[in-house]
Design brief:
elongated; Rna Polymerase Sigma Factor, Chain: A; Arc Repressor Mutant, subunit A; mainly alpha; about 200 residues
């Protein structure tokens, strides 16, 4: 088999295991932005996320022989990224100080993928921006396990099966965690609305 853009992730990993390093270049090109964005959610620091993304692809290369081609590549890759980010946080005893909102403002829209561009009227755009700001603030205050499940499900848009593989839990546990996290957000939102 020859490396091409038509190769699935799993086929690229098989080629990489066979010594074809060009397959890694295809995987990097395909997933570098996803890995970077994923790292931002955990590290909350753009420079640390950039560095981590590079290191994660080195880890993927080093762990290539442990990949099971019968399983999906993306959850396996994200598990490596998640573990790497947790190790960085633990090793450096980093306490994330910046909110998602602050990162968005500092980078002039580095988190543009969060923006919904459906508003037609300027007032609708202002309201959508305010709702997004409030939601990001609420997500920032969530307990870590709830925040992680919301990020994986709604920001990274992973399917329940992929989240289950990534977190090494059952799909039923994923659905339960998502339900609890969404309920938590609804309750906080309702409490916030009641205050106004």
């Amino acid at each position: 088999m020859e490396v091409s853009t038509e190769c699935s992730d799993e086929q690229l990993m098989i080629l990489l295991c066979e010594g074809n390093t060009e397959a890694l270049a295809f995987l990097v090109e395909r997933y570098q932005n996803d890995i970077f964005r994923f790292c931002i959610h955990y590290l909350r620091d753009l420079e640390a996320a950039r560095d981590a993304a590079q290191d994660i692809f080195l880890r993927i290369f080093a762990a290539k022989d442990k990949f099971d081609p019968q399983r999906s590549f993306r959850p396996w890759m994200l598990r490596i990224a998640r573990n790497f980010c947790f190790n960085l946080l633990k090793r450096a005893q980093i306490v994330p100080m910046r909110s998602l909102d602050a990162m968005e403002e500092k980078e002039g829209g580095a988190r543009e993928y969060l923006r919904a561009r459906t508003a037609i009227h300027p007032l609708e755009d202002i309201l959508a921006s305010e709702r997004r700001r409030v939601l990001l603030q609420m997500v920032d205050t969530m307990p870590d396990d709830m925040r992680e499940i919301i990020i994986l499900k709604y920001f990274e848009q992973l399917r329940s099966r992929e989240i289950a593989d990534l977190l090494e839990i059952s799909e039923g546990a994923v659905r339960t965690r998502v339900h609890r996290a969404v309920t938590w957000l609804r309750e906080r939102n309702k409490a916030l609305m009641d205050l106004k």
